[in-house]
């Protein structure tokens, strides 16, 4: 009897994922590993995201208008600086009761840094079937399997399980679970439909995979838009609470209705646009 797909992928701790974007739907692979288990994808050859809010060097700010500045009296400034320095020196001679806390502070910082490194090493983070800062998405399961078996370079190939996966994978095994299927192409339209039409499962699952992709591909713009305390993160928290039921769920539903539909849809349009911009469509 053939192995169930979940059993097959569980052996490698790697899962097939299906992601739908405005251009189409595609298959890829995702895993979670500690930071020490792999090297992040190389984004050095990927063009930097253009910040639409960045000021062009040839465009002045509103307060950049040329004004006549008052003339500076260099001699007066020098005299004032010398007077301040002399006063400070006299004060230091009178009261030199300071305690050198630098060694203690340095030791505390070293301990904190060591703890942060240890925690980061234990925490598992996402990585995908990527190469040189781009997410590889395949329009068919056949194309995905052919690529895996081809030996072509990719960031998952550095995992110790990869060689065995290459040997064992076949098209029948590439069946993403429902929880690993994401419909990012429907999010903006759903949000535009108004609060009563919002689908919490659709939006929350989209947030999950968007954060994973942004972390794995080092998309700072997306990470900022979805960061803790941002409008889209607040939307996720409100939707998550609203589906929990009880008094808390009732209050959360009221909070959801206060979130601007236009702001939410524009934010998600930005997220999906930036993710689409780093996808390398195959076959």
Overview of this protein structure:
The protein has helices at 5-12, 74-94, 102-122, 141-150, 162-168, 187-192, 200-216, 220-225, 231-242, 246-256, 261-276; strands spanning 14-21, 24-34, 124-128, 130-131, 134-138, 181-183, 279-282. By secondary structure, it is α/β, with parallel strands linked by helices. It has one domain. The strands form 2 sheets. A 4-stranded mixed β-sheet has the order 3-2-1-6. Strands 4-5-7 form a 3-stranded mixed β-sheet. A hairpin with a 2-residue loop joins strand 4 (130-131) and strand 5 (134-138). Helix 7 packs across helix 9 and helix 9 runs antiparallel to helix 10. The longest helix has 21 residues, at 74-94. It is globular and about 55 Å long. It starts with a helix and ends with a strand. Mean pLDDT is 81; it is low at 50-70.
Compile the SSE list and pairings.
Layout: H1 5-12, E1 14-21, E2 24-34, H2 74-94, H3 102-122, E3 124-128, E4 130-131, E5 134-138, H4 141-150, H5 162-168, E6 181-183, H6 187-192, H7 200-216, H8 220-225, H9 231-242, H10 246-256, H11 261-276, E7 279-282
Parallel strand pairs: 1-6, 5-7
Antiparallel strand pairs: 1-2, 2-3, 4-5
Helix pairs in contact: 7-9, 9-10
The count of β-strands is: 7
Helical percentage: 40-55%
Oligomer: single chain
> Order of helices and strands, N to C?
HEEHHEEEHHEHHHHHHE
> Based on CA inertia axes, which overall geometry fits?
globular
Rg value: 27 Å
Model regions low in confidence, pLDDT < 50 over at least 5 residues: 50-70
Strand content: 5-15%
Instruction: Give a quick account of the main beta sheet: strands, pairing sense, barrel closure.
Output: 4 strands, mixed
Q: Taking strands numbered 1, 2, ... along the chain, how are they ordered across the largest sheet?
A: 3-2-1-6
Work out the helix count.
11
Compute the number of structural domains.
1
């Amino acid at each position: 009897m053939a192995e169930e797909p979940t059993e097959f992928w569980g052996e490698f701790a790697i899962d097939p994922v299906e992601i739908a974007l405005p251009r189409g739907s595609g298959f890829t692979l995702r895993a979670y590993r500690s930071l020490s288990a792999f090297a992040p994808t190389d984004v050095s050859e990927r063009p930097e995201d253009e910040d639409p809010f960045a000021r062009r060097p040839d465009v002045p700010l509103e307060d950049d208008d040329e004004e006549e500045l008052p003339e500076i009296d260099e001699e007066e400034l020098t005299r004032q600086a010398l007077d301040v320095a002399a006063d400070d020196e006299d004060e230091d001679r009178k009261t030199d009761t300071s305690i050198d806390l630098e060694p203690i502070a340095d030791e505390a910082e070293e301990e904190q840094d060591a703890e942060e490194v240890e925690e980061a090493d234990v925490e598992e983070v996402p990585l995908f079937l990527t190469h040189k800062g781009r997410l590889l998405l395949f329009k068919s399961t056949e194309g995905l399997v052919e690529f895996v078996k081809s030996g072509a370079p990719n960031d998952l190939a550095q995992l110790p399980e990869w060689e065995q996966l290459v040997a064992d994978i076949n098209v029948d095994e590439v069946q993403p679970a429902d929880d690993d299927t994401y419909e990012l192409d429907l999010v903006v339209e759903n949000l535009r439909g108004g609060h009563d039409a919002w689908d919490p499962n659709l939006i929350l699952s989209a947030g999950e995979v968007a954060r994973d992709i942004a972390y794995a591909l080092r998309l700072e713009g997306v990470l900022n838009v979805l960061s803790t305390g941002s409008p889209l993160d607040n939307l996720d928290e409100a939707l998550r609470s609203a589906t929990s039921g009880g008094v808390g769920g009732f209050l959360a539903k009221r909070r959801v209705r206060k979130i601007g539909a236009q702001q939410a849809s524009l934010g998600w349009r930005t997220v999906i646009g930036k993710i689409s911009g780093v996808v390398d469509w195959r076959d």
